Amino acid sequence: MFRVVYEDENCLGIDKLLPIPSIRQGTSSGLSDDIILEYPMLSKILDFGFTHRLDNETLGVMLIAKNANYYEKIRELFRNKKVDKTYHARVRGVVSGDEGVIDDPIAHSKKSIKKMTVIKPGYRIYRGEPRPAITSWKVLNRRAELTDLELKAKTGVRHQIRVHLQSIGHPICGDPLYSDYSEDYPSLMLISKVIVFKCPVTEKEIKLMSTLNLDNMFDSIR
User: Fold this and answer.
1) Domain locations in the chain as residue ranges
2) Exposure of 95 by Cβ count < 10 A (0-12 exposed, 13-18 middle, 19+ buried)?
3) For the domain bounded by 87-167, which CATH number is listed?
4) Whole-number Å distance between alpha carbons of 85 and 66
């Protein structure tokens, strides 16, 4: 369910290997259930030490604090946008151009309680206040009817990468919410690939890298 890719006295870097919730919700299970079996001290920390979450269907690297003080310090880094996150995704269609930026606000969809939607000028079918959202992308590889992308979300809106890519006509393969294609993928082809931050205790740069790639990411599922 998870693999440790980094550990020191203050934090864990883990690979989320299955499409499940990061943190248990009520009676539902989550990745946190497995982790606290090996690291019981996490049960005493807010959110079991998870300093951020991934969508249920997203796999890849996550940062977990091993004590409450470090948790608060990392959360502050996230709030101040001092944690650099890189994602890899396989999308439908051949993306034209080698890199670009999607800068469109996102809000909750009025059509589905589960979905978000990109807001274009004059578009009024949404709930709540739109939030600014910026996603940069770069082509890693092209193949027949598919493209592999490297992505950075400069903001942290729910489903941001997924809904931004769908809005430009290149939904992520295996996306149950934002792709209309019937595809033989076990889950969403989106990996949290790299997390880089400066340790708030030692000031040393820490780089967490997922062991998963777009060709092997489902080996633990199949």
Assistant:
1) 2-80+195-209, 87-167
2) buried
3) 3.30.2350.10
4) 20
User: What residue type is assigned to position 67 of the chain?
Assistant: N
Q: Which residues contact 51 (CB under 8 A, 6 or more apart)?
A: 63, 64, 65, 71, 74, 75, 78
> Do 87-167 and 2-80+195-209 have the same topology in CATH?
yes
Q: 55, 104, 148, 175: which is the annotated catalytic residue?
A: 55
Known catalytic residue: 175? Answer: no
Q: Superfamily assignment of 2-80+195-209 in CATH?
A: Pseudouridine synthase (3.30.2350.10)
pLDDT digits (tens), the chain, 222 positions: 899 999 999 999 999 999 999 997 777 788 999 999 999 999 999 999 999 999 999 999 999 999 999 999 999 999 999 999 999 999 999 999 999 999 999 999 988 889 999 998 776 778 888 999 999 999 999 998 999 999 999 888 999 999 999 999 999 999 989 988 767 788 899 999 999 999 999 999 999 999 999 999 988 776
